[in-house]
Design goal:
single chain, about 325 residues, Nucleotidyltransferase, domain 5, 2 domains, 10 helices, 10 strands, binds 5'-O-[(R)-(carboxyoxy)(hydroxy)phosphoryl]adenosine, binds zinc ion
Amino acid sequence: MLILGIESSCDETAASVVKDCREICSSVVSTQIEEHKKYGGVVPEIASRRHCENILGVVKKALDDANVTIADLDGIAVTYAPGLIGALLVGVSFAKALAMSAGKPLIPVHHIAGHIATNYLTFPDLEPPYLCLVASGGHSHIIEVLSYTKFRVVGRTRDDAAGECFDKCARAMGFPYPGGVHIDNASANGDPAAFKLPRPIVAGNEFDFSFSGLKTNVINLLHNADQKNIEINRNDLAASLQKTISDILTDHTIRAAQSLGYKKIALAGGVSANTGVRAALSAACKKNGFEFYMPEKKLCGDNGAMIACQGSYNLLAGITADESLNAVATLSMEDI
Ligand code: KG4
Ligand code: ZN
């Protein structure tokens, strides 16, 4: 089975051909980061325009690199939710037109399900059920992966996502967009115990997250120091922030896995590239007797292979769409 996956939910135009669910034949990612950097974040209008310009070339290259033609495909998978609406619409419209003209099944894929699927691409033997922590620029979720296509969200952020917290603190510290990776790099030379930062507790659901208080605390700390002309060691602050976020994500995930009786824990999403998060969750899993899975670093950010992989499982489960498929900016995984 050969599936083409198309991703355009944020600032990456990506396409990939995946064989038999888990074998990546090609993966092309065209990133717009350099352009959005100038504005300190993604400008939705610009993102849509660049997707429009890039998508045909990216898809063509994915097919060429895999040495296949459209006729060889068994289906065309596309991210339809959640994300920037104008950005999603480009991928959805393109995939619809391609699927209809080639007479191939059109397969709708939820972006977060795609991130989770990066673990199938990394670990050929991983099978549901397991618990997955998905942390990205737009989401921080603890998800029960009940089967390849059924999910239950048991914890979510009430405000900012973990990646958003990394990026906004990084911006206040003077790092370029997206700042997560700069915090990661600076952390390598910093003392994680230098700053004591808050670890908010959320009332109601013990597995939910809240990162906005932590973000505000870091921004206030920088402003106060600036006003008093006190020099802050950015490496120390980065290391303390990374340690705090890693500890919060790890603590909630381990408690959720223990409470729900899972044996396997996986990590996914853009923030899964973070050295501190990877190390903290991996160590906690080892200590508490969980099997641990995380994607290879090159699959952590948005890519087409994760959409093609999840699209393959969706097709096997009979999940396809017709010409009425639309892009959806916000959609819970439980509603797919
Ligand atoms: O999954 P993703 O590529 O896009 C969304 O679906 O949101 O995630 C992007 C997020 C950004 O916030 C980015 O700063 C963060 O992932 N990120 C990192 C690292 N690499 C990417 N955060 C911390 N450390 C990293 N090494
Ligand atoms: Zn993503």
